[in-house]
Every structure is written in structure tokens, then in C-alpha cells.
Specification:
The complex is a heterodimer of chains A (375) and B (284).
Chain A (H helix, E strand, L loop, with lengths): L3 H20 L21 E4 L20 E15 L6 E7 L8 E4 L3 E8 L10 E2 L18 E8 L4 E6 L6 H6 L3 E7 L4 E2 L5 E2 L3 E10 L15 H12 L6 E4 L12 E4 L3 E8 L6 E4 L3 E5 L9 E4 L8 E8 L4 E7 L2 H5 L4 E7 L20
Parallel strand pairs in A: 1-2, 2-5, 4-9, 12-15, 14-21
Antiparallel strand pairs in A: 2-3, 5-7, 6-8, 8-9, 10-11, 12-13, 15-19, 16-20, 17-18, 17-19, 20-21
Chain B lengths: L1 H15 L2 H6 L13 E4 L3 E5 L3 E4 L2 E3 L3 E5 L4 E4 L5 H9 L21 H15 L2 E3 L3 H8 L17 H16 L27 E13 L6 E13 L4 E4 L19 E2 L3 E3 L3 H10 L1
Parallel strand pairs in B: 3-8, 8-11
Antiparallel strand pairs in B: 1-6, 2-5, 3-4, 6-12, 7-12, 8-9, 9-10
Classes of the chains: A mainly beta (375), B alpha+beta (284).
Chain lengths: 375, 284
């Protein structure tokens, strides 16, 4: 019997055959013609990474201790229904490890990333992963395409430093999987840690990861958001909205208000916070209202010197930026996409709750609102 | 329902062409069938937080609390105006259409202050009576045990304004989690001790009270008040200061603070005063 699911997978496979040779020189399995190099990883230490749900970032050393390692990761793909706003609008999401964005992975330059990707039988779609940090095989996508009920393991060497987007890229359905939630960030730190533009070491107390998503949720003839039973069922209507290029929602971490209220980010005056901001599909421009970016790697690539004292930074679709800021004043900060329509109307707003001592020298209200004084 | 009232009243309008006169024909007579049920608030005492923002010097602080009691009884709708009732005002050209269709028997939502005032004006013409929005004080007295103090923290630190901001943010976060905006049938949120339905439910009600900023100078004892009537108070499970042309209270939720879930209408009926009696007499 051909179910809707097997039909969709069949379509994806047919598209795979047709598309891959056109997209890249690498055939379905490029390792068949591999160079005859000795295995460089044979004697390396293996460590298992413990991923955490965003906005938290996995524990990591700011400076790499010792020699390069093989860092083992496991991510399970989860197709699920999520609520994306305070109206209760539902969305058929596809996720790495159940979150939007997927967990932020951290390694150091020269380490090997070894990811086991699992696509449980309960899912409907084939999936894979394209690491922008990886070299070859469409970022690993050509070696990781797995059906429901399959898993695959990919290893690649982290040869370039910076924050790099990873995303799902199944043939014929790439944009749909990406805007359905399948993206995240891999951060490759220099072995000797971050440096400012003068080469001085840079540290940070905490790191938050913000994944910005443009969502395209279909509406019915009455203007109400449609609900679907499964990702496959949502495909055709969603694609139609996507092709209009105007998102219905622009949100951080998968839903409006996922970084506000009791889920607001927190910091203390004097703490240095790293904000990793990824956007897999569409350009954005984060801005911390009332604060700055002390050091900003706008393109996210640590081989380039950071910029100082930015008000707003530009994040290209398909990249992740890094900003470090030391909070100097307590209060509630809004962290927004400074297309303020997207921030206020479409959802791209988070908050940072900062405790500490107020500094009257940096700012004070000299006179409070009062009737206009007569001259 | 109200259509019955319309049938009764229209010939009067036609003959006399003076709504006030038509209205004067009604007092004393039985209410036309289908008019919204009224509750006459005879007695009520609450501890009332004066509306508006208060500054002592440069420091934002809580408004004073006062024990207040009803001084003059008034009549108020037992339930909120429904979408069907509002729809008749739209059909008659007295109100602007809603942004989206709503079930006729549910409390109308998506109403801005101007819509609410227009509805009161149309309903007054229709019935020949004087219907209006309650003041914040009237609404609070009618709410009685359902009135909620909107002071969320006592922190008022002249040296560090951030302490109050953070305390308010945390209190609003805790408060905001409970309000589900999904429309509910009339009576879903129960009645208060006066028999009023759904006070403090998930539909906030526009009042006629303007935003006020009081300022007290502890050095000179000078006091000033600035009023901004482009912002009015919507009352519900907490007091909300809303821009008068907002129909959707969630608009612009980028800033800190939890907005009302929905905006709707409940009207007060004024008893005919001496002026109306006089006009009636002249008209006749």
C-alpha cells in the first residue's frame, strides 16, 4: 500500500536522483574516490558532547585544553506540532533534537565533529544535515540522507573558526525543511580562544543562542491560521505562502515570547554575555535596546577581527553572528530584530533581565515628566 | 430581540424626529423586550487605587489607596455587549465593522474606545436613553470583589529605577500567564456579588477615564496633574492604559508589560436628569 508518507519519501528520492549530479561534482558517495591518507583520527581522544536546549549553550572550554579531539554528538530529528504565538497558532515543525533552533554545538579548531543523526521511525520525512563549517559532500548532506527508521554518522574536521549554521537539506525540499525549524549553529573556537582586534584575549561569562526563524503559516479563506495533522499535510499550502516571501511570523527560538517573561535571558551588571544569533534563511539585524555589541563578529568568523561598539549588526541569511557585551546598567533590556515591525508585530523580540547597581554617571533622569515649564 | 425595541421606537422617531423626545416617552414604561438586563448598583465599598501614574519627585511610586463608597446609585449592563448587538449597530451605520466575524451570542471583542463610544451613542439614539461608558471609579465599584489593585510592587527606589522595573516585570510575568484570550460564552466567568456577569474575565471593558500623571514635589509641596485622553483605561482583571484607537490590545507587545486579552463593551445607563426633563417639556 502506498501511504501518503511513502509517497512523499518516494518523491524525495526521485528528486535526489535527478538533482544531485547537477548540484555538485561529488556523486552520491564521494568517499569512493578518497585520497589514500592514513587515518588522522586513529590516536585522538574521543569525548562525548552533552547538548542542551537553546537559548543555553553546552558547557565548553574558552581555550582548548590539549590536543585536538574527536567530539561525538548525537541528534535525533523530531517532527512535531508546536505553538508559535500567543494566539495558539500551531505549526508543523521539523527539528534537530526537538528544538528550534537545534542545540548549539561547540568544538575547537582542529577537532573532529562526529555526529550521529537519528531519524526515528515515527517521523514522516527523510532528513539530512548540511554543516556550513564542513568541507565537501554538500556540507555532509550527501552522506547523511536518512529515511524514517535510519541513522547515519558523519565525521568532519573543523578546519575554520567561527559560528556556522547547520541545516537540513533534503533534495527538492531544502527551503521547506529549513523554514520548518531545521537549523542550528556550530561554533568552532580558536584553540587559544577568542581575540579582540588588537590580539588581546577575550573571555565571556555566559553564552546564549538565538535562532531567528521566518515562518510561513497558511491561512484559510476566513483569514484564520490553518491547522494540519502532519508535516506532510502542511506542505502544499505552506509552499504557497513561502513563495510569497512574506513571513507570517518572525520569531526567536521557534515561537513568539520564547525569550520573554520567565524565559527571559538573565545577566548581572559586570557580566560579559555572548549572543550567538543564527538565521538560516533570511537576513536580520539584531539590536540590544539600551545596550551595545562591545565586540561583534558580524559574519561570525573568528579569523577576522571583531568590530567594536556596534549598535546593530547585520546577519546574512545562512549565517550566524557573534556579539559580546558587558552589561553596565541593571534593568530589562529588549533584544530585537531592528526591523521593528518584525520585532513588535511578527514576534522577533526577546528580553534580558539584568540585576545590579544603577550607575547614575552613565544615566540619570534629571527631571521627571512634568507640565512644560513657563519660560 | 432589540429588533422589537426598534419596531416600537421607529414610528416615534418618524413622527417626532427628536430622539430625546422619543426617549422621554419611555421612562416609567416597561423596558422594551430584549433590552440588555440592567443591574442597579445601590451600595458598594472598595479599597481603590487611584488611577494614573504617580511621581514623587523623580521617583515612580504607587498611587494612593482610598476607601471609596458609592455616593449615587447607577445602572449598568448585567453582561457585556455581544457581537450580535454590536452587529446591529454596524448594520444601522452607527458603528464600524469588526475586523473579523464573531459568533453573535458571544461578548464582542476587538473594539477600540471610539467603537465603544459610537456604540453607546447609537444605542442611546435607538432607545432614547442615555447610555455611556462607565468611569474607572464606577466600573471598580460595580466590580466590587472582582476589582483588582493594579499596584504590583512597593519598590520605589529613588536611586535605582531598575529595581522597580525588574519587580514589575516579574510580577507582570507571573500575572500574565493565566489569561487565555479565547472568547467564552456570556456568563463563563461567573457573576459577582452584584449579579454582574464576567467582570474580570478575559474581555477588558473600556471606561471613559483618561490616563493621568500626577506629580508631587516633596520639596515645594507642589502638585500637578497632566491628562492624556488619547489613552483611556480598560478595566478587567487588571487596569490597562490603552491607546484609544487600538482594537487589538496585543498590538505592539514589544515593550515590557502584559496587555489585556481582549477589549469589549459594557455600558452604564444614566437616569434622565433635570436637563432632559426640561428638553422634553420644551419639545412637547
Amino acid at each position: 500500500m502506498i501511504t501518503r508518507r511513502t509517497a512523499l519519501i518516494g518523491t524525495a528520492m526521485a528528486t535526489l536522483m535527478a538533482v544531485v549530479p547537477v548540484l555538485a561534482d561529488e556523486a552520491a558517495n564521494p568517499t569512493l574516490n578518497a585520497l589514500d591518507l592514513p587515518d588522522q583520527t586513529a590516536n585522538l581522544e574521543r569525548v562525548q558532547a552533552t547538548l542542551v536546549a537553546p537559548p543555553a549553550v553546552m558547557d565548553h572550554d574558552r581555550v582548548a585544553p590539549g590536543a585536538p579531539k574527536i567530539v561525538e554528538f548525537t541528534m535525533t530529528i523530531e517532527e512535531k506540532t508546536v505553538v508559535v504565538d500567543d494566539q495558539g497558532t500551531t505549526f508543523q515543525a521539523m527539528t534537530f533534537n526537538g528544538t528550534m533552533p537545534g542545540p548549539t554545538m561547540v568544538v575547537h579548531e582542529g577537532d573532529y565533529v562526529e555526529l550521529t543523526l537519528v531519524n526515528p521511525e515515527t517521523n514522516e520525512m527523510p532528513h539530512n544535515i548540511d554543516f556550513h563549517a564542513a568541507t565537501g559532500a554538500l556540507g555532509g548532506a550527501a552522506l547523511t540522507l536518512i529515511n524514517p527508521g535510519e541513522q547515519a554518522t558523519l565525521r568532519f574536521k573543523a578546519t575554520r573558526t567561527g559560528t556556522f549554521v547547520y541545516h537540513c537539506a533534503p533534495p527538492g525540499m531544502v527551503p521547506w525543511h529549513v523554514v520548518s525549524g531545521m537549523s542550528g549553529t556550530l561554533m568552532v573556537l580558536p584553540r587559544d580562544g577568542l581575540k579582540d582586534e588588537r590580539g588581546n584575549p577575550v573571555t565571556y561569562d555566559t553564552a546564549y543562542t538565538i535562532g531567528e526563524f521566518d515562518l510561513y503559516i497558511p491561512k484559510d479563506e476566513n483569514g484564520n491560521y490553518m491547522t494540519f495533522e502532519s508535516v506532510g499535510e502542511s506542505y502544499a499550502d505552506t509552499l504557497e505562502v513561502m513563495r510569497g516571501l512574506i513571513p507570517t511570523h518572525v520569531v526567536f527560538n521557534g515561537a513568539k515570547n520564547s525569550l520573554t517573561g520567565d524565559k527571559a535571558m538573565t545577566a548581572k551588571v559586570g557580566e560579559r554575555v555572548m549572543f550567538i544569533h543564527s538565521t538560516a534563511n533570511r537576513d536580520t539585524r539584531p539590536h540590544l535596546i539600551g545596550g551595545h555589541g562591545d565586540l561583534v563578529w558580524e559574519t561570525g568568523k573568528f579569523a577576522n577581527p571583531p568590530e567594536r561598539d556596534l549598535e546593530t549588526w547585520f546577519v546574512r541569511g545562512g549565517s550566524a553572528a557573534v556579539a559580546i557585551y558587558e552589561f553596565l546598567q541593571p534593568g530589562i533590556y529588549a533584544y530585537v530584530n531592528h526591523n521593528l515591525i518584525e520585532a513588535a508585530e511578527l514576534g522577533a523580540t526577546g528580553h534580558v533581565k539584568v540585576e545590579g547597581e544603577w550607575n547614575n554617571d552613565l544615566m540619570m533622569q534629571v527631571s521627571a515628566p512634568a507640565p512644560i515649564a513657563v519660560q | 430581540m432589540l429588533a422589537n425595541g426598534k419596531k416600537t421606537l421607529l414610528p416615534l422617531f418618524a413622527v417626532l424626529s427628536l430622539p430625546l423626545v422619543a426617549g422621554a416617552a419611555l421612562p416609567g414604561a416597561a423596558e422594551p423586550a430584549g433590552l440588555p438586563e440592567l443591574v442597579r448598583i445601590e451600595e458598594s465599598s472598595i479599597t481603590y487605587r487611584l488611577p494614573g501614574e504617580y511621581l514623587v519627585g523623580r521617583t515612580a511610586t504607587n498611587a494612593p489607596l482610598e476607601k471609596i463608597s458609592l455616593t449615587r446609585p447607577f445602572e449598568i449592563m448585567r453582561r457585556q455587549v455581544t457581537a450580535g448587538e454590536y452587529g446591529r449597530c454596524v448594520e444601522a451605520g452607527g458603528c464600524l465593522a469588526l475586523d473579523a466575524p464573531q459568533a453573535a451570542d458571544m461578548p464582542v471583542v476587538g473594539i477600540n474606545w471610539h467603537d465603544a463610544v459610537a456604540y453607546a451613542a447609537w444605542f442611546s439614539r435607538e432607545t432614547g436613553e442615555t447610555w455611556r461608558l462607565p468611569t474607572d471609579r464606577e466600573w471598580s465599584l460595580a466590580a466590587g470583589s472582582r476589582y483588582r489593585d493594579d499596584a504590583l510592587t512597593d519598590i520605589a527606589d529613588a536611586q535605582d529605577p531598575s529595581r522597580r522595573w525588574i519587580a514589575l516585570y516579574e510580577a507582570e510575568t507571573a500575572r500574565g500567564a493565566d489569561v487565555d484570550p479565547t472568547p467564552r460564552p456570556v456568563g463563563h466567568f461567573g457573576s459577582n456579588e452584584h449579579g454582574l456577569l464576567d467582570m474580570g474575565g478575559n474581555v477588558w471593558e473600556w471606561t471613559d477615564s483618561c490616563y493621568l500623571r500626577h506629580r508631587f514635589d516633596p520639596v515645594t509641596d507642589a502638585e500637578s496633574v497632566v491628562e492624556n485622553c488619547g489613552i483611556r483605561i480598560a478595566q478587567g482583571s487588571h487596569r490597562a492604559y490603552m491607546t484609544t484607537f487600538f482594537r487589538d490590545p496585543k498590538a505592539g507587545a514589544c515593550s515590557v508589560g502584559i496587555p489585556p486579552a481582549n477589549l469589549g463593551i459594557r455600558l452604564v445607563r444614566d437616569e434622565p436628569g433635570a436637563l432632559q426633563v426640561l428638553k422634553t417639556w420644551i419639545g412637547l
